[in-house]
Amino acid sequence: MTKIISFSNYKGGVGKSTITEIFGFLLDRDHDKKVLLIDTDPQMNLSDKIRRTFNVEAKPKKQLMQAIEDQTIADARVTINDNIDLLVGDWQIEKFPQHVAKLPAQAQFYLLYTLTKDIVKEYEYVLIDTRPSTDIMTNNAIAMSDYVLIVAKTEQDSFISSQRYYKYLSEMQRYNENLKLLGVIQYLVNTRGSTDKKVMQDFAELFEEDVLKSIIRSSERVKTWGYYGITTNYAHDKKTMKMYQEALNEVLEKLEKRDEDVPAH
Ligand SMILES: Nc1ncnc2c1ncn2[C@@H]1O[C@H](COP(=O)(O)OP(=O)(O)OP(=O)(O)O)[C@@H](O)[C@H]1O
Ligand SMILES: [Mg+2]
C-alpha cells in the first residue's frame, strides 16, 4: 500500500526540503522502493535539488499549475531514475489559491488528492515537500497525506511553530481522518548549545515518544550537497549520510509498527 508522507512545519529553513530529498534518494538507493516526490513549494527547492543530484534536466510536459488547471497532473511529472519520479515544482503555483477558490467549498481541500489519487497508486512512498505556511496548498497536501513528519530546528521559535503546527494538524483531522503524526525530527543547530538542549527537552515534553531518537546535526557536507547535489564518494559523505540513514530507518520502523497496530478488517 502506498504511504503518503508530508514533510512540514510553519517554520521556514528547518531542513524540510533537504530531508525530503535525502529520504527519497535513500528509499531508492538503499531500499529499492518506488517513490514519487511532490514539490508543492513555489521556491522549487526540492525540484532543483533533485535535478542537481541526479544531473537531469527533467522538464515536464506541462508546468504544475497548468497541469492542475487542465486536470492532467501527470503531465507535470518527470522520471528521475528507475525508482524515483518527481512532480516538478512551479513558481506559478502561487495561483493555486485563486484556482481552488472557484471550486465548491467542500472540494477546496481535496483538489490535490483528487488529481493525484490514480498516479500515487504506482508508488510505495509519496513524499510531499510543503512550503513553510498553512495556506490552501499545504491544506491540500495534508488532506491527501497518511502521515506528517514535523521537521524542526532546536531553536525556540521553531519549537513554537511546531507547537502551532501540531494544533493545525489536529484541526486538519476533520478533513482527513486517516492523518497521523509520524514523528518530529529535530535538526540540532549546535550540539553543545544550552538553548538546543532546553528546546530538545521542550520537544520531549510536548511530543513524548513521537520525537525521533535520530537527530540531524548541522553539517557542512549537507550545505555542499544543497549546492552541488548529493555526493557519496567525498570525505565525510558516508558519515553524513549515515545520520540520514538512521533517521530514515527509524521512520520505516515506525511505519511498520503503525501497520501492525492497524486492526485487520
Ligand atoms: N543538516 C544540515 N546541516 C547543514 N545545513 C543544512 C542541513 N539541513 C539543511 N541545511 C541547509 O539549511 C538551509 C535550509 O534547508 P531547507 O531548504 O531544506 O529547509 P526548508 O525547511 O525546506 O526551508 P523552506 O521553509 O524555505 O522551504 C539550506 O541551505 C540547507 O542546505
Ligand atoms: Mg523547503
TrEMBL record:
Q: Which residues form a coiled coil?
A: none
Gene3D superfamilies for this protein: P-loop containing nucleotide triphosphate hydrolases
Q: Which CDD domains match?
A: ParAB_family
The chain positions of domain AAA read 2-180
Q: Name one matching Pfam family.
A: AAA_31
Under the heading PANTHER family, the entry gives: COBYRINIC ACID AC-DIAMIDE SYNTHASE, P-LOOP CONTAINING NUCLEOSIDE TRIPHOSPHATE HYDROLASE
Q: Please report the name of this protein according to its UniProt entry.
A: Cellulose biosynthesis protein BcsQ
Q: Recite the lineage of the species.
A: Bacteria, Bacillati, Bacillota, Bacilli, Bacillales
